[in-house]
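Researcher: Let's do a round of design. I'm pasting the structure tokens now; please hold your answer until I've finished.
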């Protein structure tokens, strides 16, 4: 079924506005006639970043990538029209109303265009080779993938850019991870796990207070979706990541304007994971059974952890014991009331934790 370009978007689809701002659709639940978004890039005519890695060029057009909270602050201060009201949270969030959308970009369609490109530059050749390697091991078909970041927007440099891929679907993600594990185990080491050693974070400026770099590397290694691909023709090792996104038929979430969410403070607890079926997606959702409240009031019916922090995606599996620290919320719907712990952008961002004990 063909979907309308503006009104059938999902996580990681791209929105471009008339003033050439580029947003990434965030998640699957959105207020009426709008999309909750993450600001990604802005043209040099309206924004410049001091971050050396932010520069992007497409022909004569120069863009800068937003890092950390730069995009949020830019929208709030310079472009408040890109804020939308979220009734359940009683506050505005960064987003784009339908009537502010100039055009959209679909990751799967862009990937197909890149694979048809003639002649292929070295990065697209590497992309083609990597997908062939995955497919040869009974992995997902190329139609199950998309691209994001510089590849999606044509900012990439053939000799310096990474390979940023999307994998669509739970089953397809499982097949991909199996294929990647096979590739990691092969003797020629053409494809390696990016997090096979602590060296992966040696140059990373670490800010999380309750989450040690060694913990991070251990968790990232077993996710399997972060790879290093040695492309012989270009003579370089390319970072590759595969971001999970739901297939259309898997999207069941709906915006509920009657839902009310109350902030209840900060909480630390130990819990057992009871359900990780949505742990790969954004937001990552973990069903939990609380085992011990470490700090905070004894709260009944803490049902789940909801994480908007990418570091905590695919973080824990069913029956594992985890330590959780974050924002406690009470959720009221027309049918039920329960509590959840939310990990998201907030003043105590780097105190938040979700890790296996």
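Researcher: That's everything. Go ahead.
Model: Designed sequence:
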């Amino acid at each position: 079924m063909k979907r309308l370009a503006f009104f059938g978007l999902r996580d990681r689809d791209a929105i471009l506005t008339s003033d050439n701002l580029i947003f990434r659709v965030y998640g699957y639940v959105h207020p009426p006639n709008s999309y909750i978004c993450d600001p990604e890039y802005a043209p040099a005519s309206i924004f410049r970043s001091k971050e050396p890695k932010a520069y992007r060029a497409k022909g004569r057009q120069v863009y800068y990538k937003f890092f950390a909270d730069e995009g949020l602050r830019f929208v709030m201060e310079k472009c408040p029209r890109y804020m939308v009201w979220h009734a359940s949270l009683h506050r505005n969030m960064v987003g784009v109303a339908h009537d502010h959308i100039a055009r959209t970009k679909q990751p799967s369609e862009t990937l197909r265009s890149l694979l048809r490109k003639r002649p292929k530059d070295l990065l697209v050749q590497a992309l083609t080779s990597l997908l062939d390697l995955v497919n040869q091991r009974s992995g997902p078909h190329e139609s199950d993938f998309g691209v994001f970041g510089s590849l999606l927007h044509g900012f990439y440099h053939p000799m310096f850019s990474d390979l940023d891929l999307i994998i669509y679907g739970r089953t397809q993600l499982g097949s991909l991870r199996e294929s990647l594990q096979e590739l990691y185990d092969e003797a020629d080491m053409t494809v390696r796990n990016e997090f096979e050693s602590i060296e992966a974070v040696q140059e990373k400026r670490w800010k999380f207070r309750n989450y040690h770099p060694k913990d991070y590397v251990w968790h990232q290694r077993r996710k399997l979706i972060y790879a290093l691909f040695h492309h012989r023709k270009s003579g370089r090792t390319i970072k590759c990541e595969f971001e999970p996104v739901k297939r259309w038929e898997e999207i069941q979430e709906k915006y509920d304007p009657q839902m009310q969410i109350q902030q209840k403070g900060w909480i630390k607890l130990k819990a057992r994971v009871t359900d990780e079926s949505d742990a790969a997606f954004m937001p990552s959702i973990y069903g939990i059974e609380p085992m011990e409240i470490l700090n905070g009031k004894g709260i009944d019916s803490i049902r789940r952890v909801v994480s908007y922090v990418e570091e905590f995606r695919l973080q824990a599996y069913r029956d594992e014991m985890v330590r959780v620290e974050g924002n406690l919320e009470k959720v009221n719907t027309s049918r039920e009331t329960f509590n959840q712990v939310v990990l998201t952008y907030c003043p105590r961002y780097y105190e938040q934790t979700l890790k296996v004990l």
